[in-house]
Amino acid sequence: MKIEANALEVRDRDKTAMFTGNVIVQQGDTQMRCKELIVHYEGGAVPTQPATSQAVAPQQIRRLVANGGVIITTRDQRATGN
Fold it and tell me: What is the dihedral of CA 75, 78, 79, 82, to 10 degrees?
């Protein structure tokens, strides 16, 4: 899973990472866009590479919370929500 955003704030104590601004999540043929994404993870901290391109191991992720103009697209489908 690859996540791109304008900014990243990691709260390792809470096991969360908040991606904000033009968030793009790519996994295989599925892409999600939103204004803010909160990743709840297990184990160690999410790698702290530059916020513009952040790779996250899917097995570490417990839950994703997307907010603000969420658009999910696959090869032949599209879904939108808040």
Answer: 110
- End-to-end distance of the chain based on CA atoms, in angstroms? 22
pLDDT in tens, the chain (82 residues): 899 999 999 898 899 999 999 999 999 999 999 999 999 988 765 554 554 555 566 558 899 999 999 999 999 999 999 8
At residue 37, the 3 state secondary structure works out as strand
Q: pTM for this structure?
A: 0.80
Contact assessment for residue 82 and residue 67, using Cβ atoms and an 8 Å cutoff: yes
**Cβ neighbours, 10 Å, residue 33:** 19
